[in-house]
Specification:
single chain; Rossmann fold; seven-stranded parallel sheet; 12 helices; 43% helix; globular; binds NADP nicotinamide-adenine-dinucleotide phosphate
């Protein structure tokens, strides 16, 4: 198939495109820089240079690629988020999820593409009440913390327009928290360094439930969604959603760091804000049953336990 990967140089795109090329697909991948375009070409990917917020450039790049499938992996998430100003950190990503999705979807439809795959996120955007683990049928948080409202709205936009698009199969992959090479939770990444330096405490009872996925498992799920599967939403997470009080001390241990500090919520609220405290104490995790059942996805790292130990 002819596949257009918007964001081919990102954390997921870098691991996805080699799998697609090896699978015999013709892959066009986007970047904004000529240096990365050359790297893509060397990896067997046809480079396309475009700004995802420039509608004309997107329409032109997708039309030239004549894709069967368009994969939207555009984000702008490098650096460390300030959890008190979460939406501010996500401003560009939210634009890519709203305007960028609209441009890419229109371009895919105009080019006659059969299928559109978009990146979303699962974990903290879940409703923060009821069961600790949510499925695709459970609602997004109707009352997100103030600092994350725009980001939830952008996620809602991607998920709504992609599934409602006419004449094209819309698939939304809600990835859990990525870890592994090239990620903030990977060798040299900011989050891993925070754990190493004991700057990430277990807050309160550490009851916030996180869903992780190794970047290569996420890439393999994406290939399956490109090639087959019913349109709709899929949680792309591992088998073991887990509270902070379990995964954070374990992570510290396997990377040879001292155990994380413990801090009451009232003490860290001024630094982390309500959203930051919620991430550590209240959020819910996600189930991967649908992706395993309907995409036939199997994981190399079914749990972050072996993933953190062997896959970072
Ligand atoms: N589910 C998750 O946990 C999740 C999801 C996504 C990202 N992240 C994390 O966020 C961090 C950064 O992610 P990342 O490495 O993927 O980098 P990133 O800076 O988010 O970029 C991702 C891709 O989007 C492209 N891009 C960004 N802005 C663009 C724009 N305006 N127009 C066109 N293309 C644009 C980039 O292309 P060029 O820069 O080459 O132009 C790149 O290919 C990593 O630590 C990653 O783990 C986590």
């Amino acid at each position: 198939m002819r596949i257009f990967v918007a964001g081919a140089t990102g954390a997921l795109g870098r691991r996805l495109t080699p799998l697609l090329v090896r699978g015999g697909h013709h892959v066009t991948g986007t970047t904004r820089t000529s240096r990365k375009a050359e790297q893509l070409r060397a990896a067997g990917v046809e480079p396309a240079t475009m700004d995802g917020l420039d509608r004309d450039a997107v329409m032109e790049a997708v039309a030239a690629a004549k894709p069967d499938v368009v994969v939207h992996q555009l984000t702008a998430l490098s650096g460390s988020p300030d959890l008190r100003r979460f939406d501010k950190f996500f401003t560009e990503t939210n634009r890519l999820r709203v305007e960028g999705t609209d441009h890419l979807l229109a371009a895919a439809q105009a080019a006659g593409a059969r299928r559109f795959i978009a990146q979303s996120f699962t974990g903290w955007p879940n409703e923060r009440s009821g069961s600790p683990v949510k499925t695709e049928d459970d609602p997004l948080d109707p009352h997100p913390a103030a600092a994350s409202r725009q980001t939830v709205a952008a996620i809602r936009h991607v998920e709504t327009v992609v599934r409602a698009a006419s004449g094209i199969e819309g698939v939304v992959l809600r990835y859990g928290g990525f870890y592994g090479p090239g990620n903030t939770l990977g060798a040299g990444g900011e989050l891993l360094e925070m754990v190493r330096k004991r700057r990430l405490p277990v807050v309160g009872g550490g009851g916030g439930v996180w869903s992780f996925v190794h970047i290569d498992d996420a890439a393999r799920a994406t290939v399956l969604a490109v090639e087959d599967g019913a349109p709709g939403l899929y949680n792309i997470v591992d088998d073991e959603p887990a509270p902070v009080r379990e995964w954070l001390p374990y992570l510290a241990q396997v990377i040879g760091a001292k155990p994380p500090m413990r801090a009451p919520a009232w003490l860290v609220r001024p630094m982390l804000g309500e959203h930051g405290v919620s991430l550590m104490t209240r959020i819910r995790g996600s189930s991967n049953a649908k992706a395993k059942r309907e995409l036939g996805w199997t994981l190399a790292y079914p749990s972050w336990r072996e993933g953190f130990r062997d896959g970072l």
